[in-house]
Amino acid sequence: METTGKHARNLSRVSSKRKLVEAQAAFARKMRKKRIALFQSLISSLTRPLHILDVGGTQEFWEQMGLIKDDVEITIYNVLLIETSYPGLVSMAGDARNMREFKDKEFQIVFSNSVIEHVGTYAHQRQMAEEVQRVGERYYVQTPNRFFPLEPHFLFPFFQFLPVRLRVFLVTHFNLGWRGNIPDRQEALQAVQEIRLLTEKELKNLFPGAKIYKEKLLGLTKSFIVYKGWELH
Predict the structure, then answer these.
(1) CA–CA separation, 161 and 184 (whole Å)
(2) Angle in degrees, CA 207, 211, 217, rounded to 5
(3) Ranges for all domains in the chain classified under CATH 3.40.50.150
(4) Per-residue pLDDT tens for 108-159?
(5) How far apart are CA 141 and CA 42, in angstroms?
(6) 38-45 contacts: CB < 8 A, separation 24 or more?
(7) Hey, which of 78, 114, 151, 214 would disulfide with 221, CB 3.0 to 4.6 Å?
(8) Which DSSP symbol is given to 46?
């Protein structure tokens, strides 16, 4: 009887977790549509062909954006090479903090979606921000808001404000977020430390003079989009 009750509680927790993940995924799709609409409105009057550098992106994302076209050339720049199946998509491997492969203002647009929070310390984030501004005439960078109550990777309230040791304990003992349970302590520590969410004040400091679009959920700012250079066209 006790075993049955424990099994029922486990099923209930799994169901609640699944509902939370599904709700997060549904909201992410909704935000992605708005993000796409904003980006498309910005590029609508730019001369073609467009040369875009996507820092940390994927081919699937651009398929969803509906921007794989003959007059759009996209370089996907990531830590590892990825397979591409379109002539207008090129994959390159490198470090977003030092994009030495590219000349100043080589691209009309530098695009980055939920990447800058993964590159390391604030000093590393500054390096990426400087490189984004160096290689692009314009940029469009999205990142989660540090002060949104639900941490977006681990899907745990105020996770980003907890001590590292407690965060590691939670990740090693519970099935949190997109990656789930990570039993190995060293791997869990790496997963916790590889994410540094940014505040609005920090973004303004990293991208001086940029406009900031705030993505809202229940009246709270869930994430930011910083963009600049669109007045050039």
Answers:
(1) 22
(2) 105
(3) 31-146+196-232
(4) 999 999 999 999 999 999 999 999 999 999 999 999 999 999 999 999 999 9
(5) 13
(6) 38/213, 38/225, 39/65, 39/111, 39/140, 40/65, 40/67, 42/140, 42/227, 42/230, 43/109, 45/233
(7) 214
(8) S
Residue type, 4: T
Antiparallel, parallel or unpaired: β 220-228 and 211-217:
antiparallel
Q: What is the pTM of this model?
A: 0.85
Measured distance CA(9)–CA(6) in Å, rounded? 5
Strands (E) across the chain are located at 50-55, 72-78, 89-93, 107-113, 136-144, 211-217, 220-228
Q: CA 152, CA 32: separation in Å to the nearest integer?
A: 14
Q: How far is residue 2 from each of residues 5, 12, 14, 96, 160, measured CA to CA in Å?
A: 5, 15, 18, 53, 36
Burial of 187 (0-12, 13-18, 19+ CB in 10 A): middle
Q: Topology of domain 31-146+196-232, per CATH?
A: Rossmann fold (3.40.50)
What H or E segment, with its residue span, contains residue 8?
helix 2-43
Q: Which helix (H) or strand (E) holds 80?
A: none
